[in-house]
Amino acid sequence: MFRKNKFQKLKEYLIEKLLFLFSLVSIFATVGIIAVLSFEAFAFFKEVSLLKFFTDTQWTPLFVKKHFGILPLLCGTLLTTLIAMLIALPVGLISAVYLSEYASEKARDIIKPVMEILAAIPTVVYGYFALLFVTPLLRKCIPGMSGFNSLSSGLVMGTMIIPLISSLSEDAFHAVPMGLREAGYALGSNRMQVSLRIVLPAAFSGVCAACVLAISRAMGETMIVAIAAGQQPRLTLNPLVPVETITAYIVQVSLGDTPHGSLEYSTIFACGMFLFVMTYFLNIVSYKLRKHFQQVYE
Amino acid sequence: MKRIMCFMVIAVIACVNQAYAAKLIKVDGSSTVFPITEAVAEEFQKENSGIKVMVGISGTGGGFKRFGRGETDISDASRPIKPKEVDLARENNIEYIELPVAYDGLAVVVNPQNTWVSHLTVKELKKMWEPDAQETITKWSQIRAGFPDKELRLYGAGTDSGTFDYFTEAICGKSGASRGDFTASEDDNVLVEGVSSEENGLGYFGLAYYEQNKDKLKLVAIDDENDANGKGPVAPAIETVMDSTYQPLARPIFIYVSVQSAQKEEVAKFVEFYLNHAGQLVKEVGYIPLPDAAYQAALERFKKRVKGSVFGGKGAAIGVKIEDLLKRQK
Q1: Of A115, B56, B278, B286, which has the most beta carbons under 10 Å away?
Q2: Do residues B126 and B133 lie in contact, with contact meaning Cβ atoms separated by under 8 Å?
Q3: Range B36-46 average pLDDT
Q4: In degrees, to the nearest 5, what angle opens at C-alpha B178 toward C-alphas B310 and B316?
């Protein structure tokens, strides 16, 4: 009996340590990635000053006249993200309101999984969908539009992140106590008034968190913009011309034969670092918002 | 005993069969040369069902990088090998045989809706593409008086592409000297898509990609302002490349075969098949075939395993006429 007990204890101990090791894997991966990124980015910023990186308006590290201004790439990234959010935010939010406040249990059970299929489609498929279907369609309505542009890739990217916004906001709506709704009805409000004036404001921080997550998802999206948005770094807000995003640039260089260890090659780490800092910051904001909203209704 | 014998025979056949089925020839490199190699590979695989030929499009530079590390058997190249690539191959003890397979008349194209351009001079192309044009030459009207005041949207080969090296050397005078603010891709299909969907677009790529997309693109004649190479603007075509009047954008394109890989029976067979059938297939995909004598000379070089490049490993060589090429081969 005693021996068995000891054996049991040892087993428990080993299992605990094993589980602990597994949980360390992702932490090590994160630390490793940050270390490599900072190391390589540091090498880059020894050659190119931060000031130049953020103020130069041209990005041509692979060509003879080298310029290392991140602004055109950042502009491409923000432009596609903005277009995506213009689609994803209203559509995602309205469907969340419908699913949480209006839809019957049965309708919900069908619509929700179908919407989530959108998130399961590989992004490369979305990319070619944007390039070969959406762009030709838009070109019929908008003359002078380029074959590669931020508009169609932004629209398709927006469609892709609709389920992200709708399911996260719906969770937030669900967390709003039933009592608040009932109070609204008791005062004679109709469904629309309850949804928009009571539930939505009450779940506001949760909705914000969903948006911020969606923005960071859109900024990090790679395949769609690499395929459909073009590969020309350009400082513009015109959604009809080719642009290049930070992620698309990283793909372009890492697939090519730019020699490892060269300044040209280290640009992708600088870009990666910059992107990482931006999305990390957004994720923290989202986390803080969610926390805030949990504290309010416990 | 009989049964055991039977078993053994079957086992041996199965083994041989498996080894046979596993034969794979790996080709990578220029997307300009790709249509030819792909067409040859298709014909070859019809006749040799046990051999698979894989053809990639990493660009000439990307292809040589893999070739120099011994990852591929054959490298497609739209320019001769460069010093850096020669060194890489030497480091890894890779020796190679250079074989010209066709001529390309690098095509400069615009959108069919473009009514103002029918020809351009080399000087105008230089003005458009040279490094100093970056962020300064942005309108068609800056290229020639009389062109409309419309934005100039450029599509060109990516920096890993042999076409990029050749075009910049031929037009701007130095390999790699190009502006950086244009849509760059190693995949010529991307450039076709770009120019064909953009009224103000202009791009350049191998002639075969124009031939395959004739209805979506408009070919621009090029004037090198040298009357010795034909007077006035000349458009790329079989005749103008053959008689060397389409200059300076006509160029030979190559395959590089690793000497080590050539010892493999299937690779040797494929290369011989390539040179014997290139004449006809090159025409079909839209390039200009070499004279029969040149294919014979190349076959001779391959059989004798003549190593190295006739261009001395210096990268893009401009203005190599077909007869020059033939002379160098011998």
Answers
A1: B278
A2: no
A3: 94
A4: 5
Which residue in B209, B187, B199, B117 sits closest to B153, CA to CA? Answer: B199
User: Do A63 and B199 make contact, defined as CB atoms within 8 angstroms?
Assistant: no
Cβ of B199 within 8 Å of Cβ of A234? The answer is no
Do B184 and A232 count as a contact with CB atoms less than 8 A apart? yes
Interchain contact, B182 vs A232, CB within 8 Å: yes
> Domain locations in chain A?
2-47, 71-296
Task: Determine the Cα–Cα distance for residues B228 and B219; give it in Å rounded to an integer.
Answer: 23
Pairing of strands B218-219, B107-110: antiparallel
B240 close to B105: Cβ distance less than 8 angstroms: yes
C-alpha–C-alpha distance, residues B97 and B209, integer Å: 27
Question: ipTM for the complex?
Answer: 0.75
Which residue bears the tokens 């360390």?
A24
Judge if the upstream peptide bond of residue B248 is cis by omega within 30 degrees of 0.
Answer: yes
CA–CA gap between residue A249 and residue A242 (Å, rounded): 13
Instruction: Give dist(CA A297, CA A164) in Å, integer.
Output: 23
Chain A residues in contact with B159 (beta carbon < 8 A): 62-63, 256, 258
How far from the centroid of its chain's Cα atoms is residue A148's Cα? 21
Sequence-ordered list of residues with C-beta below 8 angstroms from that of B206, at least 6 positions apart, any chain: B31, B32, B35, B78, B104, B106, B107, B163, B188, B253, B287
Residues of B in contact with A258 (CB under 8 A): 159-160
Closest A-chain CA to B200: A144
pLDDT in tens, B167-188: 999 999 888 899 988 988 888 8
Q: What is the pLDDT of residues B77-97, one digit of tens each?
A: 999 999 989 999 999 999 999
What would the pLDDT profile of B219-267 be if each residue is shown by its tens digit?
Answer: 999 998 887 777 789 999 888 888 888 989 999 999 999 999 999 999 9
Chain B residue with Cα closest to A136: B197
CA-wise closest residue to B315 among B193, B176, B190? B176
Query: Is the Cβ of A146 closer than 8 Å to some Cβ of chain B?
Result: yes
Roughly how many angstroms between the first and final C-alpha of chain B, as a whole number? 61
Instruction: With beta carbons less than 8 A apart as the criterion, state whether B143 and B137 touch.
Output: yes
Q: Which of A132, A138, A146 to probe the B interface (max B CBs under 10 A)?
A: A146
A-B contacts at Cβ under 8 angstroms: 79
CA-CA distance, A95 to A154, in Å (whole number)? Answer: 20
What pLDDT sits at residue B13? 53
pTM: 0.80
For residue B99, give the DSSP letter: E
Contact state of B179 with A231 under an 8 Å Cβ cutoff = no
Contact list in A for residue B184 (CB cut-off 8 A) is 62, 231-232
To which residue do tokens 């000087």 refer? B123
- Tell me the CB-side half-sphere exposure of residue B222, using CA atoms within 13 A: 27
Q: Which of A131, A148, A256 sits opposite B159 (nearest CB)?
A: A256
A256–B160 CB contact, under 8 Å: yes
Q: Say yes or no for a CB contact (<8 Å) between A231 and B181.
A: no
